[in-house]
Amino acid sequence: RIMRPDDANIAGNVHGGTILKMIEEAGAIISTRHCNSQAGEPSVAALARVERTDFLSPMCIGEVANVSAEITYTSRHSVEVQVNVMSENILTGAKKLTNKATLWYVPLSLKNVNKVLEVPPIQYTRKEQEDEGKKRYEEQKLDRLETKQRNGDVIFPIINPEPHTVGYSQSSLIHLVGPSDCTLLGFVHGGVTMKLMDEVAGIVAARHCKTNIVTASVDAINFHEKIKKGCVITISGRMTFTSNKSMEIEVFVDADPFVDEPRERYRAVSAFFTYVSLSKEGKPLPVPQLLTETEDEKRRFEEGKGRYLQTKAKRQAQMQQAAQQ
Amino acid sequence: RIMRPDDANIAGNVHGGTILKMIEEAGAIISTRHCNSQAGEPSVAALARVERTDFLSPMCIGEVANVSAEITYTSRHSVEVQVNVMSENILTGAKKLTNKATLWYVPLSLKNVNKVLEVPPIQYTRKEQEDEGKKRYEEQKLDRLETKQRNGDVIFPIINPEPHTVGYSQSSLIHLVGPSDCTLLGFVHGGVTMKLMDEVAGIVAARHCKTNIVTASVDAINFHEKIKKGCVITISGRMTFTSNKSMEIEVFVDADPFVDEPRERYRAVSAFFTYVSLSKEGKPLPVPQLLTETEDEKRRFEEGKGRYLQTKAKRQAQMQQAAQQ
Amino acid sequence: RIMRPDDANIAGNVHGGTILKMIEEAGAIISTRHCNSQAGEPSVAALARVERTDFLSPMCIGEVANVSAEITYTSRHSVEVQVNVMSENILTGAKKLTNKATLWYVPLSLKNVNKVLEVPPIQYTRKEQEDEGKKRYEEQKLDRLETKQRNGDVIFPIINPEPHTVGYSQSSLIHLVGPSDCTLLGFVHGGVTMKLMDEVAGIVAARHCKTNIVTASVDAINFHEKIKKGCVITISGRMTFTSNKSMEIEVFVDADPFVDEPRERYRAVSAFFTYVSLSKEGKPLPVPQLLTETEDEKRRFEEGKGRYLQTKAKRQAQMQQAAQQ
């Protein structure tokens, strides 16, 4: 579809969140279709996890987004989907790969939303494909467990913070979940949640560096808990790390089922977003260093640095590999 | 209402699809109101057909759209509505007729959606009005039957197409039907479908000629099949004909009731859209000729030429008639 | 237009904010049209104030909103507009007055947004009309000055608050101002701001009483400061007063022109919203009493009580007057 002014920031760059929402919609369609391809109980595929995603080149207003999706692995209860987004300038015909994403879905019964159904197996053309898929499946399963334990952190408000401290840019947003946000099962689409997360992370980044910012990458996101229609969700973001030219922001999503529900507020999702600051010509700008004050902030900065260096090393290894081929 | 940036393309011209959506909403309101004006089973008017519509002058961001609707004929089971759209520049006070449309609605029972109810007859001021309406009614009925037969065609993807061939510009878009897209009966508003059709047709036209394009006219659209909430719809478009300054695009809408429905994918709507290419000063530009390769493409080109010449002849006859008066 | 699921809460009642947005759009159109009705510098009418508005009966999904607007007074630099909203059930034909609102607009030059232009005078059918209008004009002018002074208050976050305290339900929302939120001058439509204010106030009310809530009335809102495209706005709400069956919530809007602007964060708008809690049958429910802790909270509760009693007395006086006629 064509990118509209509302999909983009004032510099005309499409929000990362808009792209994540399109990716998730494509993934939900293909995996729901697959899970209902054999006779049996009807089901709706719910997003369980999105693997780390890099935004390779910014998309602009007026360009057309081409989204293609393919099922690459099935376990007994989950589906792995690979989604590619190409941006196409229909005036010049130029096409660019915007990003590639890998998503995991789980089929939930349409009649009983707490029941996970079985997934019809796909056919692999080579035995290797299945083995590699299984390896990816095991890895993400382990990672899901780990983040579940980490998930208890809370962002406390800070009064009169200094510029460039963590408290200065931290932000939060509340959203009342409406019918358009939800699947047939009455739960929020994963893509809607990711779009709101990107919105908060973008505001944190812009408050910190006060320039035009764009999403550079999103770390793996695990959806541990479903969010029901009618909930109020609070999305909070704080900066954890800055390199010379990038900012890492941690985002939490808490759901508050406050009408007619006995349940307390709970943490539904958390993730790390990385942003860069762009000049008017689209070149990356230096970013002011994050000032850490408390022990926790310093620890999180070091952890963020670890993730940053690891990603950088991985990317260099990939580039060397590519150069050798 | 005031036209916003999201209603328009990057050159500031309001999408034909936005206007079609407003027209259909006005038609649905007036015909639902009429069908419930007498005591009896409550009903919701569903769009059955839109007659050929010309876009007389482009509307721009910031202008106000004034939409007026009037019932012009009733048969036993259908209502004919005439809708006019005026664009008003509230700064200069200038008003222009943007388009006139004729829509046909059918009242469906609120309790049993497969039951078509009777329409209360309207009063005609002159006997002629009734006769002319009846003639229009018979004509559209015949045309509806014909398009139903034509509806089986499918658009296949083409790999590495040459510029200006049919395969080069053909496009498709997938949309998951949400609650805001639907009427009280849980079926997609005709206006929502037309807006998506216009979006796809616009992408096809822009891919072909790589300039700023606007909707010039829409041929009669017949809504043979309803589309239910929760369906995935695929809207595909391909170019069928080019004259020196216009492009004709055929658009298909297929619905995929992929959850909880035994039904196969089916063709819901099809229609022809005509686009022109505009220079920055708003003047029509020449259009590159469509290169036809297969026998089918050549046949469709000739058929498109037939429609083009017929419309041109009709318009000239009208102008001569107007000149003689 | 037809009310959609997205316009309403999960009980199907249309949000007060949706109605306020429609009212303001109608007011902006009629006053911009009037201000440009004579030759001279083109201008766009900007919302300066909305008088107190009562929501007389709830509107539901599927109903049609009929909005009518009329200019009732002009001063040298401002326009008073009266807007009525009728809800129409197109199935039964039943119409109800949803609310009446009075809005004040000021024409700003399209070329120089800081220049307020002159308003062409309207013709009054009776001298009394002009005198009464002038009286309303003087009253609102006085009230505007007063609220400007009150506007410095800030909502501080509270950690682990007790149920039914002020801190327990207070909420805030951030929103990045996009192109669709703005007028031709690049400033946020008053209606967009009011919709967001109603959203926050509704969340505060629902958090307090955990039931289905609807907007009952909005006190006069003064728009002291314009908000520019690209700003981040923070909308915060806190409960100030509860009667047996109503809740009063104070809402603040702060704008943060954080990209490319030398200006600090500033207070753009503030207002009081009153909500009631409804049972499934649509009857008003008792509301838990607000627990006030600090001196400021107690003071605000007494002030809210004052406003509540004043409104009640006014309404009784009007009813007696109506009964005597």
Set out the fold topology.
The structure is a homotrimer of 325-residue chains.
Chain A: H1 16-35, E1 43-50, E2 53-54, E3 64-74, E4 79-88, E5 95-109, H2 127-150, H3 166-169, E6 171-176, H4 190-209, E7 212-218, E8 221-223, E9 232-242, E10 247-256, E11 266-278, H5 295-324
Antiparallel strand pairs in A: 1-5, 1-8, 2-7, 3-4, 4-5, 6-9, 7-11, 8-11, 9-10, 10-11
Helix pairs in contact in A: 1-4
Alpha carbon gap, first and last residue of chain A: 35 Å
Total tally of structural domains of chain A: 2
Low-confidence stretches of chain A: none
The shape of chain A, in one word, is: globular
Q: What pair of chains forms the biggest interface? A: A-C, 32 and 32 residues
CATH superfamily assignment of the largest domain in chain A?
Hotdog Thioesterase
* CATH topology-level fold name of the largest domain in chain A: Thiol Ester Dehydrase, Chain A
Q: What oligomeric state best describes the polypeptide chains here?
A: homotrimer
H/E series of chain A: HEEEEEHHEHEEEEEH
Please state the average pLDDT score of chain A.
89
Total helical elements of chain A: 5
User: What is the number of E strands of chain A?
Assistant: 11
Helix content of chain A: 25-40%
